[in-house]
Design a protein that fits this description.
Structural class: mainly alpha
Strand content: under 5%
Largest sheet: none
Helix content: 55-70%
Shape: globular
């Protein structure tokens, strides 16, 4: 659709450009992110992993990853009630343990790090619930999901099309 056609019919959907398949176009980089993802999860509670990935995906507006990780969380037994509360975890803190709240606060700060860095109180709260190894793993997890979010957004992945099952 040309610019003129868009001006004449502004409600028409913009043309979608075909984006590259990151995994096929940069297989070594893709495998490296998969390796980081696997390493980051080691030793962390799988339910906590999904909560962190869901929260980061909310903050980054990544529908593809949000759909994937809420589906994974459901399959792992996470309740619908808690899944709905992740987006508003501060206002619904009673749905989450103190450790989960600390992880979610860290996720918020690291995901939005350009907005104010990682405040000392958020770091202290996380370090009160996680030993150094766990805290490093949690940071690696947050960094990894942010990378996945950016890959999915930059390559226009479609929510609901989980490539892991194909």
């Amino acid at each position: 659709m040309t610019t003129t056609e868009l001006q004449q019919n502004p409600s028409a959907p913009a043309p979608s450009a075909t984006r590259l398949n990151f995994a096929k176009s940069a297989p070594k980089a893709f495998r490296a992110v998969i390796g980081l993802d696997a390493a980051a999860r080691e030793g962390l509670d799988p339910a906590l992993v999904e909560l962190v990935q869901i929260r980061s995906s909310h903050l980054n507006h990544c529908a593809y990853c949000l759909h994937m990780h809420t589906s994974d969380a459901r399959r792992a037994g996470e309740s619908e009630e808690r899944l709905h509360m992740v987006a508003v975890w501060k206002e619904a803190a009673h749905f989450f343990t103190a450790k989960e709240q600390a992880a979610l606060a860290l996720t918020d700060a690291v995901t939005l790090i350009a907005d104010g860095g990682l405040p000392d109180d958020v770091y202290a709260r996380a370090s009160a619930h996680f030993d150094d190894k766990e805290l490093a793993q949690l940071l690696a997890l947050i960094l990894t999901i942010n990378t996945w979010n950016r890959i999915a957004l930059a390559t226009a992945k479609t929510a609901g099309e989980d490539e892991r099952v194909s």
